[in-house]
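thought: user wants a sequence for this fold. calling inverse folding tool.
action: design(structure=
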């Protein structure tokens, strides 16, 4: 007569252990398979567009994101910063450019810049300098709230990357806005 035991025995333990090892091994094999579906670093560095949600950025705040390995400053400008940038005489600027030509139409509060000083490639600090824009501590270049050079050795304004608004609170950097407003 054979008696069936309801208590686990050694064979039950081996079945459970083998199943667990197989499940962990299967999951470990899936990780590189899924990871290989992401674009590689050279594709991203070559300019894959970057989407940025503007919703969490408070008025007066500047954030930094990276596109093509470059820092991109996104500034949510205050009304005061916009007014100060607009009242500057273009004749007084070393690299004259109107503020409204440095932002998208109807989106004056959002300024998107490549955060690299045009003098020697340093990264300027936000909300610094005599014009409360950007200040490059390496050699003293001072930019205003529109990213235009005002003082110092930098020859040009902070450059503007190609970008477009996907909605009122989202932009894509790395893609030129083709819509005419």
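)
observation: tool returned 181 residues.
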């Amino acid at each position: 007569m054979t008696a069936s035991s309801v208590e686990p025995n050694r064979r039950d333990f081996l079945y459970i252990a083998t199943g667990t090892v197989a499940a962990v091994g299967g999951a470990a094999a899936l990780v590189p398979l899924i990871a290989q579906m992401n674009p590689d670093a050279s594709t991203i560095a070559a300019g894959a567009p970057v989407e940025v949600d503007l919703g969490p950025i408070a008025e007066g705040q500047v954030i930094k994101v990276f596109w093509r390995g470059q820092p991109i400053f996104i500034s949510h400008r205050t009304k005061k910063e916009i007014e100060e940038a607009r009242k500057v005489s273009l004749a007084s600027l070393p690299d004259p450019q109107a503020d409204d030509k440095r932002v998208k139409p109807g989106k004056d509060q959002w300024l998107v810049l490549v955060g690299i000083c045009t003098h020697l490639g340093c990264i300027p600090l936000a909300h610094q300098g005599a014009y409360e824009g950007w200040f490059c501590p390496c050699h003293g270049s001072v930019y205003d709230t529109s990213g235009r050079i005002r003082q110092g050795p930098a020859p040009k304004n902070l450059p503007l990357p190609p970008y477009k608004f996907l909605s009122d609170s989202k932009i894509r950097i790395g893609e030129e806005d083709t819509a005419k407003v």
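thought: summarizing for user.
answer: Here is the designed sequence. The helical segments are 10-35, 41-45, 79-86.
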